[in-house]
């Protein structure tokens, strides 16, 4: 079975992630083929818009294929770095794609799934959408431009989502800047057909014609305690405020306490740094440094083992407590990589080289 499908109907180029049993998790080959298709369609005058969706009923994409990352880490390899290089470059490419890039974010959209959708120009969610950046649960830190998106959500909501690994609804995603349009799931087929028809309207107008007002955001309704608690300086102080507040805040503290202490502290610093960085590319460069450090850390392999391999849900983090995670350890995740830097922020704008060829 082909793990990603490419079709052209009328003036629409369609990308369908086609690993439904794995909730369309991304592997390296898929990333490369998507990048190649985007290049071809960018220069094809017959194509006026691109659409990405996922096969099956469970979701657009559950993220990257973390089992392959575990195998790589366990063998002492570095193929995960090559995967991230191409993935992050694709994320930046999508954010600057010159034609409407329509992402159907139906069902589960996590991690790498956010990377291939929420950087697009036309982002569609449904009543079934559940959007999350759950990396700290496996000893990783939000990447694929996730810290860029999370750090720019209203108030401190992005910090809450990152540290708790909360899954937010389509309505939440729209309110917090991760999506644009709310379309009932039973209308997605008709929407895709309309985009591929001979309709002369702008593709964005076609999407708007299928959209309806989203429900109220449940996450936005909790902004008062979220903004207060997550404004604290450290993870320890955030937990103190959450527990003191009680109710849903205390429940959030309980979820945070399960996560990798190192990943929590590195994530908080990454989010606050990302908020000050000038572009998605600069944030992706930072995320690559952090992900590279995670690859050589204890907690990434242990987190994947506990969640995906042995599935005992009992990770043995090291260091085991927040108190043991010092500032020097956190800083080491942000250390420059020298010749190994991703270097997106220093590249020509929109991924185009000096000779005019798309990178």
UniProtKB/TrEMBL annotation:
GO terms (BP aspect): L-valine catabolic process
Pfam families in alphabetical order: ECH_2
Organism phylogeny: Bacteria, Bacillati, Actinomycetota, Actinomycetes, Frankiales
Its EC number(s): 3.1.2.4
GO molecular function, one term: 3-hydroxyisobutyryl-CoA hydrolase activity
GO cellular component: cytosol
Record field: catalytic activity: 3-hydroxy-2-methylpropanoyl-CoA + H2O = 3-hydroxy-2-methylpropanoate + CoA + H(+)
Domain Enoyl-CoA hydratase/isomerase, residue spans: 13-334
Keywords: Hydrolase
CDD domains: crotonase-like
InterPro entries listed in its UniProt record: ClpP/crotonase-like_dom_sf (IPR029045), ECH_dom (IPR045004), HIBYL-CoA-H (IPR032259)
The organism of origin for this protein: Candidatus Protofrankia datiscae
Annotated Gene3D superfamilies: 2-enoyl-CoA Hydratase, Chain A, domain 1
Protein name: 3-hydroxyisobutyryl-CoA hydrolase
């Amino acid at each position: 079975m082909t793990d990603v499908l490419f079709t052209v109907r009328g003036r629409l180029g369609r990308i369908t992630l086609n690993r439904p049993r794995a909730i369309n998790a991304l592997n390296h080959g898929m990333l490369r083929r998507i990048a190649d298709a985007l290049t071809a369609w960018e220069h094809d005058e017959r194509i006026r818009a691109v659409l990405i969706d996922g096969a099956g009923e469970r979701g657009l994409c559950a993220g990257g294929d973390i089992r392959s990352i575990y195998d790589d880490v366990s063998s002492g390899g570095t193929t995960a770095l090559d995967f991230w290089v191409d993935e992050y470059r694709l994320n930046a490419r999508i954010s600057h794609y010159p034609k409407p890039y329509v992402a159907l974010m139906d069902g589960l959209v996590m991690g790498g799934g956010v990377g291939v959708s929420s950087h697009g120009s036309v982002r569609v969610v449904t009543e079934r959408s559940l959007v999350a950046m759950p990396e700290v649960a496996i000893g990783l830190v939000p990447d694929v431009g996730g810290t860029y998106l999370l750090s720019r959500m209203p108030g401190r909501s992005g910090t809450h989502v990152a540290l708790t690994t909360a899954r937010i609804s389509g309505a939440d995603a729209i309110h917090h800047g991760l999506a644009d349009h709310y379309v009932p799931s039973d209308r997605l087929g008709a929407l895709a057909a309309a985009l591929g028809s001979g309709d002369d309207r702008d593709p964005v107008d076609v999407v708007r014609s299928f959209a309806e007002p989203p429900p109220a955001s449940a996450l936005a309704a909790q902004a008062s305690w979220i903004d207060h608690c997550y404004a604290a300086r450290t993870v320890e102080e955030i937990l103190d405020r959450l527990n003191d507040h009680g109710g849903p805040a205390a429940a959030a503290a309980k979820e945070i306490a399960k996560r990798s202490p190192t990943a929590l502290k590195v994530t908080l610093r990454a989010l606050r740094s990302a908020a000050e960085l000038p572009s998605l590319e600069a944030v992706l460069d930072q995320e690559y440094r952090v992900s590279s450090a995670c690859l050589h850390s204890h907690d990434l392999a242990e987190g994947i083992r506990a969640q995906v391999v042995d599935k005992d849900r009992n990770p043995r983090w090291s260091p085991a407590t927040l108190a043991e995670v010092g500032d020097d350890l956190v800083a080491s995740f942000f250390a420059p990589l020298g010749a190994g830097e991703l270097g997106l922020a220093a590249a020509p704008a929109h991924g185009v080289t000096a000779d005019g060829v798309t990178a």
